[in-house]
Amino acid sequence: xxxxxxxxxNKISPVFDAAQTLRIFEIExxxxxxxxxxxxxxxxxxxxxxxxxxxxVKTIICGAVSRQLSLFLKNHGVKLISWIRGDIKxxxxxYIKKDLLVxxxxxxxxxxxxxKQTI
Length: 119
Prior knowledge:
Number of strands: 6
Order of helices and strands: EEEEHEHEH
CATH superfamily: Dinitrogenase iron-molybdenum cofactor biosynthesis domain
Shape: globular
Helix content: 10-25%
CATH class: Alpha Beta
CATH topology: Nucleotidyltransferase, domain 5
Mean pLDDT: 91
CATH architecture: 2-Layer Sandwich
Number of domains: 1
């Protein structure tokens, strides 16, 4: 499965809409293989979303995301795990261990602080 993570300074980009890089990994069980970094910095929101869909990612881990971008991606079969923060390696390891959705990785305004999100 292809997983995308929005990146800023080796951390989750705090606002996905403003992210410049989508780091793509291939995940098989607990095996993780870095594939490539994709530049998603230019163009409007629709062209950014189209570029993301064209990568073939099935799931994206990101920070805050606008409703427009979220709906576009979801309508194109991309699952979002949003409102996440932290170091890329730690977030990736937590995702693999199915231990990502804990407050340590939540942005301060994460809706999951009120209710639990599921992967």
